[in-house]
Write a structure and sequence with these properties.
By secondary structure, this protein is mainly α. It has 5 helices and no strands. The relative contact order is 0.17.
Length: about 80
């Protein structure tokens, strides 16, 4: 199971705005291109573990500052889908 976590975390740490929009669309999450760009820029290069609830919460708080609380809620839904 650890290998899947590593793969997913690596994808989060290297995600582009286009990829984020694609995943959001697949999971029925609404974010716009501008928000996706800001979020992807924030995530890129960070060594985050979305399977760790405290790290995920900290990331969501930062995303809320960048793109607003509603977008952060949507991104959190997306992260939760990835962790299932």
């Amino acid at each position: 199971m650890k290998i899947f976590e590593n793969i997913i975390n690596h994808k989060i740490n290297t995600i582009t705005a286009g990829e984020l929009l694609t995943y959001a669309s697949q999971f029925g999450i609404s974010i716009n291109r501008s928000q996706a760009g800001k979020i992807a820029e924030y995530l890129r290069g960070r060594q985050v573990n979305i399977f760790d609830s405290s790290q995920r919460a900290a990331i969501i708080k930062e995303i809320a500052k960048i793109a607003g609380p509603e977008t952060a809620k949507e991104v959190n839904k997306l992260f939760l889908q990835f962790t299932k």
